[in-house]
User: Fold non-specific serine/threonine protein kinase from Acrobeloides nanus.
Amino acid sequence: MSNNTNMMFELDDILEISTPETASSGMSMISNKSNPFFAGMVYSKPLEIPKLDDATEGPQTPTTYQKNLCINATSEVDPHLSDDDDDEPDTSEEQKKLCLCATSIPMETQEAGLIQKKAAVNFPSHTHQITDDYTVSHEIIGVGESGKVMACYSKRDETKYALKVLRDSPKARREVELHYLASNHENIVKIIDIYENTFDGLKCLLLVCEFLEGGDLLTRFENAGSVPYTEKQIGEIISQIGNAVEYLHDMNIAHRDIKLENILCSSIDPETCVYKLGDFGFAKRPERNHLMESPCCTPFYVAPEVLGREKYDKSCDMWSLGVAIYILLCGYPPFYSMKGLAFSPGMKTRITTGLYAFPSPEWDVVSESTKDEIRHLLKTDPATRTTIHELMRSSLVTGEESIAIRRGSPYSNSDSDSAVEFNMDSGESTPENDTPRSWSRSITPEDDVPELPSKAGPAIINFKKLEALMLKTGGGSVRQFSKPSAMKPPRLHSIQEEVGRALDMMRLGNEDCFIKSPKISENPLLQRRLSLKTSSPESFKN
Ligand SMILES: Nc1ncnc2c1ncn2[C@@H]1O[C@H](COP(=O)(O)OP(=O)(O)OP(=O)(O)O)[C@@H](O)[C@H]1O
Assistant:
């Protein structure tokens, strides 16, 4: 890796954490700053390793390389956990996969029973300076949590690309690896080049991606006045993004950060626009460690709850798609803080209990089958939430009339649990197997809502029970639902954080938990307690 300490790469410009204000500004230019590092460096030598885009030509199926990279991940997963739960697994194929995986582990490792904590990170990268090949401009094309996304131009043909700079870390490597694995799908932002450069002693990963000139879907929706899209328009968007999600889920990758800001548009013309999923910062696929703990047969002994996490990760994507569809259909999110907070106990309660509404008038024009689809996507129990394969067959995506026959569906047959729906006219709960109706009531203000049991419950909550519970706990009462009637553009952009936090909650089986030793902890409370302990009389110490 080359060290570039004498160059003036304005890292802070790029790695700076965004603020909602800068984030909402969308595309902008910093034209008054000149940066000698970015300016006019001449392309000097051919690339040392093949261009990534060479490898990404071809049919939209995982390449052999990608499959090989994924095979270790897929092989650790219980075959019964595939999304097609009903399909009888081909045992011989599954066994072959398991063996393939086991044999790919070096023999010494197998014998020693070594645990490899992290899957190897695989992506081809350039170690020479990015400025050999690209002119990096100060044009900001987007701002996210991990910094600014800048424009850069190929020195070969002046083509414009998007450049994302990440501080090198295991998390950043996982982002790049998983994005790279998926990058040849037509509905996933394509990676063109990856560089590993060092600036001022800071190791960075530089991701050069295709530039999507239509920008992100949230900004685009907002710039058009947050006018609700038609079901047909949404069907088109979801069929494309769903395609990407299906591809990812089939490769055992969960994206875990699907939101409108991460859906990018190839053009501003809706007729020709191709929608692409970007930002793999939270993407995840199962690691090999379970398998590595004991060679070959371990997958048969892995507890279901461990394997289950992978399924939760995927179902988190489905929940996010439900939120995205909801927002595009009405212009406001299903769960939000009415006090303008990014998050609140009330909002958390509504998410965990699946408490949201389809208020008039926006939802009056939306078909029952689409509302039904949203209900299935926003189900609180991840195990019963719609899978991507089901969504792709839904009438919303296919455009055909809905035949809502779903195993265990509380909306299409009567064999489900006892969820009930609130009847706005009578104030009564109606049996769920009646024709589903839109809610027009909810709880307000949110913080009046008592904390309900957090275990996954039915998607629709029994208002009678809730009201009784609230009275018992001294909480508020069920009142007229106050929807954010005019979700003006700035307001919509400000929900970014709310949706982000909600999504955070949905990422079950989140990152590995690291418990610091008290010896190295800098926790002030612990420090105080420790100093108290050392300064207290002997009798207090034991
Ligand atoms: N290839 C691209 N073409 C056009 N715009 C892009 C591209 N990549 C990113 N952007 C813009 O930059 C924004 C931030 O990008 P990205 O989501 O990758 O960054 P992030 O820091 O990971 O964001 P997040 O806050 O979602 O974690 C996007 O919402 C989009 O507006």
